[in-house]
Write a structure and sequence with these properties.
Number of domains: 2
Strand content: 5-15%
Helix content: 55-70%
Shape: elongated
CATH class of the largest domain: Mainly Alpha
Radius of gyration: 20 Å
Length: 155
Amino acid sequence: YGLASRLRIPSNAAEEMISNYFKAYPQVRTFIKDTISQAKEKGLVRTMFGRKREIPQFKTKNRNVIQEGERIAINTPIQGTAADIMKMAMIKIFELLQEHKMESFAILQVHDEMVYEAPENELRKLKEILQEGMSEVVALSVPLDIEISVGDYWC
């Protein structure tokens, strides 16, 4: 229903899209089932780096509340791990900026984006530091590719 509503398509078309997705990526369904099962057993989930989130929603008999807990169980390992990586990247970048005695500084971080203010003469070095700090902060089986752009203002 949610997908059909967001895409403004018939429910049967949304069901077919979801079905095709799980046929193409069966390991996703396995991840979902295993994650929910473990979360119900332990009452919590963890990010890849061990940060935990308790899920008290599983202590009720209310089906809507339990489904909320299932969504939390599925999303937390993914979104929480992404947040952990971003925090580690911010620390690494800060350390590199200090090491190179740069005037550049972070002014904003939103989800997977960071915004820095920098003098013109530091842009080249700042790009190198951002690349290293964000792409190399953790070793994963997939690359952490980033895009860097420069502008006079951010909005």
